[in-house]
Amino acid sequence: MVIQMVLLRDLFAAATLFFITRYFIRLIISKPRRLPPGPKGWPIVGALPLLGKMPHVALFELARKHGPVMYLKMGTCGMVVASTPDAARAFLKTLDLNFSNRPPNAGATHIAYDAQDMVFAEYGPRWKLLRKLSNLHLLGGKALEEWAIVREIELGHMIRAMCESTRRVEPVVVPDMLTYAMANMIGQIILSRRVFVSTGDESNEFKDMVVELMTSAGFFNIGDFIPSIAWMDLQGIEGGMKKLHKKWDALITKMISDHKKSAHERKGKPDFLDVIFANRENSEGERLSDINIKALLLNLFSAGTDTSSSIIEWALAEMVKNPTIFRKAHAEMDEVIGRNRRLQESDIPKLPYLQAICKETYRKHPSTPLNLPRVSSEACEVNGYYIPKNTRLSVNIWGIGRDPNVWENPLDFTPERFLSGRNAKIDPRGNDFELIPFGAGRRICAGTRMGIVLVEFILGTLVHSFDWKIPTGTELNMDEAFGLALQKAIPLSAMVTPRLAPAAYLA
After folding, report:
1. Transmembrane stretches, by residue range (predicted)?
2. Which among 178, 461, 487 is positioned nearest to 305, based on CA atoms?
3. What are phi and psi of 46, to 5 degrees?
4. Which of 358, 362, 403, 455 could form a disulfide with 437 if both were Cys (CB 3.0 to 4.6 A apart)?
5. Buried b or exposed e, range 126-136, using 16+ CB within 10 angstroms
6. SS3 for 173?
7. What is the pLDDT of residues 448-489, one digit of tens each?
8. Binning pLDDT at 50, 70 and 90, where does residue 32 land?
């Protein structure tokens, strides 16, 4: 018995020595797992208090100190921030598949039907089906051509309404006007009807819902980073999201119900929603539920109206601030188009200065200042730094656009920078990481093509059709309001004067 106990003791000691030795050998021969540099932050909450009310600006300043790949402890979660084109390329191109999912968050849960939409859905068969149907029948090149007439008609409605405002000597509130017009464009394509017959309380409420969605979804919610206290809703964000979701769900439910009742009116002319219901199942057996379809409509009506309208509003504000840009744009358009007709989409390739204005706005005022967050599926390495599994990724698109190492005089609004030299070939569609307003990689914004078409066509039409001035006695405010989309803190309000032949506004 004693001998057995001695043998067991010696065996246990030998095993312990073996595992300790192996551990230290691994420690010696393995590469050190070095996290990217970053601020220390506070106990428990980490770097959350450092972000303030303008996280994109705070992260830009922190990156200047800590480097292009920066690691922050955010509550119990880790977050890595990419702040240069090369860093963005490493994450969104080289490691694209590893960062193809979104982290869980309150916005996806409480607004987007528990991530049943296209924006927050897990990368997989359901997401691919949502994306495929959207590209084929709404957002892709062929679909955009088919629906060009809708954009032209709705823009005509907007132009004529603006002419009416000039007769009443009233300023045009740009974001209200744009949201109303874009919602009707999308409504015509998705539902075969205008969402709003006229501007008024209903359309204003819709705009408020869109802005609230984009603002609340952009918040850094403490509960997302410290899940154990999420139930407390310390900032009141989740309660607001739940109330907002009820409003959106009621609106979308009514849209679908009215659409089904009018099915007989669309015999042989199916719209986007008809196509979605008819093709809701793919060859892999993945089937879209009614909730998936409602969540997709939520994406299209919110992101489809807000992101493009914010870009157009910023562009007009920058041009009003610098009338020389307006004069150059008018001169180009008058030469190519003249003043006897409205701008058409086919004119845009002949208007390089207009396209340069759009690119310069994407650079200085990207609609999503921090690319929608992603999360690492597995541990990986970037620039020699170890990135653990389940690390959140933010790409500071706004910061890249303001980087003096990338752009000359980045705080100036200078469209000419895109007319010659190395910048002339830069394209905003996700391959040139100096300018990625829509993101990049497989989770690039699904509406990239549509967004570019809308911005160029609508902005071009507004510039060509009118002279713009700030109302007498007011000042132009260029402050930002942070959210999922980067809004102007004070909406642009301007007096417009028609500059084309009267018949051009009747077309």
Report:
1. 6-25
2. 178
3. 65, -130
4. 362
5. bbbbbbebbbe
6. strand
7. 999 999 999 999 999 999 999 999 888 999 999 988 888 899
8. low
163 annotated as ligand-binding:
no
What residue ranges do the domains of the chain occupy?
Answer: 33-505
Tell me which residue has tokens 């403490």. Answer: 222
What residues form DSSP beta bridges with 481? 487
Alpha-carbon distance 502 to 261, whole Å? 40
Contact 487, 481 (CB under 8 A): yes
Terminal Cα distance for the chain, rounded: 105
pLDDT at residue 7 greater than cutoff 50: no
- Tell me the C-alpha distance between 372 and 289, whole Å: 25
Q: Provide the pLDDT for residue 389.
A: 98
* Burial of residue 309, with CB atoms counted within 10 A of its CB: 0-12 exposed, 13-18 middle, 19 or more buried: buried
Helix (H) or strand (E) holding 14: helix 2-29
Nearest to 77 by CA among 41, 53, 101: 41
CATH code, residues 33-505:
1.10.630.10
Q: pLDDT value at position 402? A: 96
DSSP state of 432: S
